[in-house]
Amino acid sequence: MSPTEFTERISQVEAERDALASALAKAVSDREHYREIYLDALERIKRLEQGVLGQKSERLPSDESQLTLQILGTLLAGVEPGSEPETTTQPEPAASEPPKKEHPTRKKPKGRNRLPEDLPRVVIELIPDEVQRLGLEAFDKLPGEVSETLERRPSSMVVVTVIRPRFVLKNSPGAEESEAEADVEAKPEVEFFTHEPIELPIERGLAGPSLLADSVVKRFQDHLPLHRIAQIYGREGVHLARSTLCGWHQQLAESLRPLIAAMWKDVLTSVYICTDATGVLVQDKDKCRRGHFWVVVAPERHVLYGYSARHDSEAVDRLLAGYEGYLVADAHTVYDHLYLDETILEVGCWAHTRRYFFKALSSEHVLAREALALIGELFRLDGEMQKQKQKQKQKLPPQKRKEYRDRHMKPLVDRFFAWCDQHAPHVIEDTPIFRGIRYATNQREALRRFLDDGRLPIHNNISELHLRRQAIGRKNWLFVGNDEGGEVNAILVTLLASCQMHGLEPWAYLRDLLCLLPNWPARRVLELAPVHWRETLQKPEAQQLLAENVCRRVVLGELDGHRVEV
After folding, report:
1. Contact (Cβ atoms closer than 8 angstroms) between residue 209 and residue 552
2. What is this structure's pTM?
3. How far is CA 335 from the centre of its chain?
4. Which letter does DSSP use for residue 82 in this model?
5. Same domain, 529 and 484
6. Span 502-531, pLDDT tens digits
């Protein structure tokens, strides 16, 4: 081969090499592109299957629990991800000794739960016919068999007719001159005596405290739409228009605003609060627009709801005006401006972080399981601390909680973020696992915040739990009529959710609250909040006001009959 031919051959080979390199680069690029499409389609299919057929909880299958423990052991032992964990082999059982079958322990039957002692009871004694025929004197009575049957008396409407007769002294000047009522009223010197009208939650309204409380509980606790409530009352003999029920709730919300304002003021003194938001449809002329419900939880004190027409930073400013402390929230941008001057410190939610990796299970099973194993161990350790609190039957001091977290949970948090830093450069962009790692690293400081103060929670589940109340209601009543309706909803649901937090029966609480509110001192209105309710009921002032309320006494059966003088 001549030098010229050799040079041409080299140039030809180099051109082929460059073409192959270019084709390889294009193939690699196309592969990554199609892999992204595949992973995105796989995630969409998984979400569709989960929404239509699957369970909504974020629990891993029980048959993978052993694998999770192995992954966790590998990560915490410092073994490189992907290597096989060390296992110890168990000796084979002898042939003469067949493996014993493990039978699950059967729980002992506990029988029926005892019926509450405070329920009304009617005792019926059944006497045999033979005993009745011969007489009780012919027999010795022995202890018998006692059984209980639970029945229900149908609820019913009661009309409380209040008569306030007017009296005039028989010997008063001018009264004896005419027995006609019109003549007596025309004389200005005649003095009349009449009882003051009873206090009602809605001035000159038709509904008393118990009926108003019942309608609120049905609508906002049991999530019944107005037309169903009207149908229920119609079956009881009273036909009420939906507009009437809606008007009652609007007027009630207006009278309750001072109490709700006092609860908001009290929440702003909390060391930390938890918040979240959800959307709701609002009726409009052409089509429904979107409004938003907010929840703010001060654990062990109040659950408060707010409404705004927009989900933006201005709504957050109105909601949390004047607050300084820790804020447990998701990483939405509407909260970012609150953290600029550090008067409010962000606390991240590990449950929200976990959700990202749970969504990545279908596309990046191995990496997602590693992340879930670390986060799951974090939740397990926090649960162990809660169990210690329950065993001691008292709250662990914040300093003890911080020491526990520094000793047991801080190394796990460090290991998790080291894992994120290790895998962040190698995952494909805009995939579920990429979004999970990016979210965690962006929220690194906020997610570590719970280590600074033993009082802080590691998640925001309490907000999501209470916000679920609005989500369930939304499936039933579908939308609110206008922005004012959203505010009415937020005010009344605030009291119902706070009742749930403190274990109060909502109907009884609202009934008695509406009896006390008109005459309760405005400067002490916070005493009527659910957090203080049990202490308030022990005060002589509250007991006297409740005892004097005629409508309440009728509902409780203390006043009955056609005519009762009070």
Report:
1. yes
2. 0.78
3. 21
4. T
5. yes
6. 999 999 999 999 999 999 999 999 999 999
